[in-house]
Amino acid sequence: MIRVLIADDHHVVRRGLLFFLKTQKDIEVVGEAKNGLEAVELVEQLSPDIVLMDLVMPEMDGIQATKKIKKNWPHIKVLMLTSFSDKDHVLPAIDAGASGYQLKDIEPDDLVESIRQIMRGENTIHPDATSQLEEGLREDENKPHILNPLTPREQDVLAELTKGKSNREIASSLYVTEKTVKTHISNIFAKLHVQDRTQAALYAVKHNLTETNES
Question: Where are the 4-aspartylphosphate modifications (predicted)?
Fold first, then answer.
């Protein structure tokens, strides 16, 4: 079961999400929070797998709540579910550690698939948000450059990761074991100073690291 915590200041939104997610056999809603502060407190109490996080909430917004969650419980994943697709909201959300970013007009079935994708360690970002991210990253020249260059094989793994492939799919494409892929991904995260696959993929796009190496 995928344990989900819903964090949104609108009661109607929480009720709607709860009603639909309860129909899914592999998803369990373990709690609801009406603001970011309450979300952080419930994460500590309930230890969900994924938090569906609104951006604009009273007392503590979704960005600050995500930062606290990722700092204290880095294994817990956050899926932003919001009405904002502009880069001023998308970029800070990803930088805070969100594993995905979807808009509230998403079809229910697509939202469920996004939850499952995140649980599998894959990327899930709404197309409108993706375009804003790419624009924002092109404008942002203040990100640190790689201090330790990636090896050719790590570049290959990063290129496959950027396509949204799972560890198993990457292993199959590169003819290596999943254990080897996990090791390479861990090294990539350390060298790029990122926390998850989404941030690594965005870094790769900005710094043109998505081309595979010729054999």
Answer: 54
Residue 107 is encoded by which pair of tokens? 């079809």
| CA gyration radius, the chain | 17
Give the pLDDT band of residue 195 (cuts 50, 70, 90).
confident
Gap between the Cα atoms of 60 and 39, Å rounded: 9
User: Hey, is 81 helix, strand or coil?
Assistant: strand
Q: Which domains does the chain have, with CATH numbers?
A: 2-138 (3.40.50.2300), 152-206 (1.10.10.10)
Angstrom distances, CA of residue 188 to CA of 73, 146, 147: 21, 10, 11
- pLDDT at residue 136, rounded to an integer: 60
pLDDT category of residue 215 using cuts at 50, 70 and 90: very low
Inform me whether the pLDDT recorded for 143 exceeds 90: no
50 and 21 in contact (C-beta within 8 Å)? Answer: no
How many beta carbons lie within 10 A of that of residue 13, not counting itself?
A: 15
Longest CA–CA separation in the chain, Å:
55
Assign 3-state DSSP to the chain and report helix, strand, coil percentages, each to 5. 50, 15, 35
